[in-house]
Design goal:
- The structure holds three protein chains of three kinds.
- By secondary structure, chain B is mainly α.
- Chain B contains 13 helices and two strands, in the order αββαααααααααααα.
- The longest helix of chain B is centred in the last third of the chain and has 38 residues, at 252-289.
- Chain C is α/β, with parallel strands linked by helices.
- In chain C, 41% of the residues lie in helices and 17% in strands.
- Chain C contains 14 helices and eleven strands.
- Chain C is globular.
- Classes of the chains: A mainly alpha, B mainly alpha, C alpha/beta.
Chain lengths: 257, 290, 352
């Protein structure tokens, strides 16, 4: 157990190392991505708040990721249930289809989506982004949910149905609770992919909907300053606060039990 | 439930996702597939001609080399990630609620930072005069800087870091979900910890591990930003080339053809690996039962 | 184009699934500019230039930001036939690719009166676009490192081949606009030209093992120079100053022969707001905007009547200097762009 703990500590250090550097750098007084040596400064935090573009982009991204993750985890559960519990023609096709979207290089899908949403009059709408993001993230939520449904013995559902439950009731009362953790994992994966997606979004999004990653990516096109580091640092702190809040509300214990 | 309902129920369940995928993925992609069969000149796509030119161009050893490199790097990353993520998942899964959530946040944190900004973090860390090389020099371990960036090492480090959560999360969900009574029962029946792990824990978590590795692998195959920023032009992967061909050359037919080959090749690999694992799993289960 | 119509009607049918209404294009009063999300966006949104535009012309200016010229032009081409943007502003080479694909309208002298004030050089492809301002291709080197090692400061393009600089170089790849000009200069330096590019590639091949990174963005050049990962870089002249201003002791220089890297503006063919497009192009080449670009970034305005003052004024090229710039054979560049890029990726990019 001690070895496991030590190993985990090492991995956590590896995970956090570049982030800690960015956090540290965000306090730089310099106008470059340069680590502060003797003085710390909050100027880039001021800059970040002085530019409403970033703040608006953050709220847009959060909204988009939330809608995307909700839609994706529900639809992925339904689809995963069908793929695991039923044998029907075309099952393999659906499996392949659901895995395909993140395999197409972002540029290609992005340009294709831009042409397409433009043709159908959805260009520069929030729903165009939702459609694209759900398509991109769902397959990944689906995989982990699928694996978990497979681990729930179908006998349990049959037993419920023998006792008079409908198939739907059996699914909702037996399978959903038993796979809740995987659905949650799927939700989280969907959320973070959507929140960070840039290569597809950059092409297809209209001027009214610049997501945060797209905004940051564009910002660094012909200039550089640590504003973006300050924003990243604030994101880390914000999610930490969110987890603390959830913990306070008692959400974490129930979630992991 | 009658037989008729049973026949259409799965399709009903698949309908929402399939509909979204049609609009958000399939229909736009069809346009790309069509593009891949058209001719190209600096004047743009020539929609009046149909040709296989883009695909025959890909038969070049240069492109084969790029595909080979992408595949090799992706496999290496997935393999290392699987080995590293399993002990982490084991550890995290047995923690109490709060600690569990915080550790998962640690592993999720790379996604809170924009990939471009993260790459600058890596530059500070891995660069020729970065933190790691400075430490190595101060310790007297090296004279010349160890090249950790602008090569495959950089890409592998960056992607293990970036895509770790895709293996960890499903694995955590599965391991945390294993009924502790199972292990307790096995222990009561005289199984040693190692045997409990091999015969109970491992087989029960294998599907989730596999699911995670497949996600991880596909992410690696399609990764663009991290290889471009940490590997530079020297580590050409398919996505990097697809980016250049589509945007710099504006050769959309070739770019689309490249994507199709990447898509089909990866899908075939995934299906094959699933078959192999499925048969392997049956063997493990069988042994476990004995 | 009948097949296109079938595809789009199929698409429209599928779109019924998505109940959202079509994007409401504000009729007449909105004008969209497709350009960079860096300094251009900061200027328009944060420094109030979009508001100034509205006050002067009555149009609401909306920026459609992208990160690179290639991304800008690809976005424009993807909207061919049904553009959602009115004006495009990007690098010359990418812009010409767009001209070749027929996405730009010819500018109307009557509706863009400022065109009369432009230098002759600024005219792009018979009025399919106009150069707004130019930067020149330059080098920057780490003064301290050169002094410490006792190296002579670089002066000419040829200095880049000096053996002691092996492992010290940052050079833009051929996919980058500056990289294209650098390749042409290498070819010319070794007896070739745009039409005979081989000597250029041979020189690149010699340089390749000594290149730290084939760098494409300002941000990356800045970070690598500041970390002293390299000590000599080829990039835009103004970028060198910008990096110096931010506290990294690099010295920018402009080697002779001098290549310019123009930024071009033009109106999309079939733009949703052609009147607004003309007004915006006219504004982009007007005195206040170009004076600002010159004073803030040292860009040389192509409008004869612009007076640049302040600390950057000396960096702005004079009319005489403009005449000495190298004329690049853009038709050949355009025809060969994909081929050169492909060749670079095959022969040069992976060399260590």
């Amino acid at each position: 157990m001690i070895w496991l703990r030590l190993f985990n500590l090492l991995m956590a250090v590896f995970m956090l190392a570049p982030l800690v550097l960015i956090l540290w750098m965000s306090f730089t007084p310099f106008e470059m991505f340069r680590l502060p040596t003797d003085t710390l400064s909050l100027r880039w935090y001021r800059e970040a708040f002085n530019y409403p573009g970033f703040l608006n982009a953050f709220f847009l991204s959060a909204r988009l990721a939330l809608v995307t993750a909700l839609a994706a985890s529900v639809m992925a559960f339904l689809a995963a249930y069908a793929l695991v519990r039923f044998r029907f023609p075309g099952r393999r096709f659906f499996e392949a289809l659901f895995l395909a979207p993140l395999l197409v290089p972002g540029v290609v899908l992005g340009i294709a989506l831009l042409q397409y949403v433009n043709a159908i009059g959805l260009y520069n709408t929030f729903w165009a982004l939702v459609l694209a993001h759900v398509a991109i993230v769902t397959p990944f939520a689906l995989r982990s949910i699928q694996a978990q449904i497979r681990a729930v013995p179908e006998d349990l559902e049959w037993a419920a149905m023998n006792l008079g439950a409908s198939r739907l009731q059996a699914m909702l009362r037996i399978t959903v609770p038993l796979t809740a953790r995987a659905v949650l994992a799927g939700f989280v994966l969907a959320f973070i992919i959507s929140f960070a997606e840039v290569t597809v979004t950059i092409f297809m999004t209209g001027p009214a909907y610049p997501t945060l990653p797209v905004r940051i990516y564009n910002y660094l096109s012909d200039q550089v300053d640590p504003t973006v580091a300050a924003i990243s640092a604030m994101l880390i702190v914000l999610s930490l606060a969110l987890v603390l809040l959830l913990d306070r509300l008692g959400g974490l214990r129930t979630l992991a039990k | 439930m009658n037989a008729g309902a049973r026949r259409w129920l799965p399709f009903l369940l698949l309908l929402p996702l399939t509909a979204v995928l049609c609009v958000g993925f399939l229909l736009p992609l069809i346009q790309s597939v069509e593009n891949s069969f058209h001719g190209f000149s600096p004047r743009g796509i020539d929609r009046s001609t149909w040709t296989l030119a883009a695909y025959t161009k890909l038969f070049d050893p240069f492109y084969a080399g790029v595909f080979g490199r992408t595949l090799r790097i992706s496999l290496i990353i997935s393999a290392i990630t699987a080995v590293l993520a399993y002990p982490v998942a084991l550890y995290v899964a047995q923690l109490r609620g709060r600690a569990q959530a915080f550790l998962l946040l640690v592993y999720m944190s790379p996604w809170l930072i924009n990939v471009v900004v993260k790459a600058f973090g890596w530059t500070l860390l891995l660069g020729p005069r970065g933190t790691i090389n400075t430490i190595l020099r101060t310790l007297g371990l090296t004279d010349a800087p160890v090249p950790l960036m602008f090569n495959e090492t950089g890409v592998i480090i960056g992607l293990i870091h970036g895509h770790f959560i895709f293996v960890l999360l499903p694995l955590w969900a599965a391991l945390a979900g294993i009924d502790p009574n199972l292990r307790w029962a096995a222990g009561n029946l005289g199984a040693r910890p190692w045997e409990i792990f091999r015969r109970v824990t491992l087989p029960l978590s294998l599907p989730a591990l596999m699911a995670g590795v497949i996600i991880n692998f596909t992410m690696n195959m399609a990764a663009f930003a991290t290889p471009a920023l940490l590997g530079g032009t020297r580590v050409q992967v398919v996505s990097f080339l697809a980016y250049e061909v589509n945007l710099v050359d504006l050769n959309w037919p070739l770019g689309a053809a490249m994507s199709m080959v990447l898509l089909v090749a990866t899908l075939v690999l995934v299906v094959l690996s699933q078959r192999i694992v499925a048969s392997g799993r049956r063997r493990v289960m069988f042994e476990g039962a004995r | 184009m009948r097949k296109d119509r079938i595809v789009s009607s199929l698409a429209a049918a599928a779109a019924l699934l998505a109940l959202a209404p079509s994007a409401a294009l504000a009729q007449g009063k909105e004008v969209h500019l497709l350009s960079w999300g860096g300094t251009i966006q900061t200027m328009l949104e944060k420094e109030g230039w979009a508001d100034r535009f509205k006050k002067e012309t009555g149009y609401t200016l909306t920026l459609v930001p992208k990160a690179t010229s290639s991304e800008i032009i690809a976005t424009a081409i993807a909207q061919k036939g049904k553009p959602q943007v009115d004006v495009v502003l990007c690098d010359m080479v990418a812009y010409l690719q767009g001209v070749e694909q027929g996405i730009f309208a010819t500018l109307d002298r009557a509706k863009v009166p400022n065109l009369a004030k432009m230098v002759d050089l600024a005219w792009v492809k018979d009025g399919k676009g106009v150069m707004t301002y130019v930067d020149v291709v330059g080098m920057m080197y780490q003064e301290d490192v050169f002094k410490r090692k006792g190296w002579a400061p670089p002066k000419s393009w040829a200095d880049i081949m000096r053996p002691e600089l092996k492992g010290q170089l940052l050079i833009p790849p051929v996919s980058n606009t500056y990289g294209v000009y650098f390749l042409i200069e290498l070819a010319r330096m070794n007896g070739g030209s745009e039409k005979n590019i081989d000597p250029g590639f041979e020189a690149l091949k010699k340089l390749a093992p000594g290149v730290v990174d084939w760098t494409t963005t300002f941000a990356k050049i800045g970070t690598l120079m500041q970390g002293e990962a390299a000590s000599l870089a080829v990039f835009g002249y103004t970028s060198g100053f910008e990096i110096r201003k931010r506290g990294t002791p690099v010295m920018p220089l402009v080697p002779v022969p001098t290549y310019m890297s123009p930024t071009v503006a033009g109106a999309m063919a079939g733009s949703p707001n052609p009147e607004g497009a003309s007004a915006l192009v006219n504004w982009l080449i007007s005195e206040p905007v170009l004076a600002y670009r010159g004073e803030r970034f040292g860009n040389t305005p192509m409008n004869r009547e612009v007076k640049v003052t302040g600390e950057n004024a000396e960096r702005v090229l004079t009319g005489d200097q403009l005449k000495t710039l190298v004329n690049v054979d853009y038709d050949t560049v355009l025809a060969k762009r994909a081929e050169w890029n492909d060749r670079f990726n095959r022969e040069i990019a992976t060399v260590r």
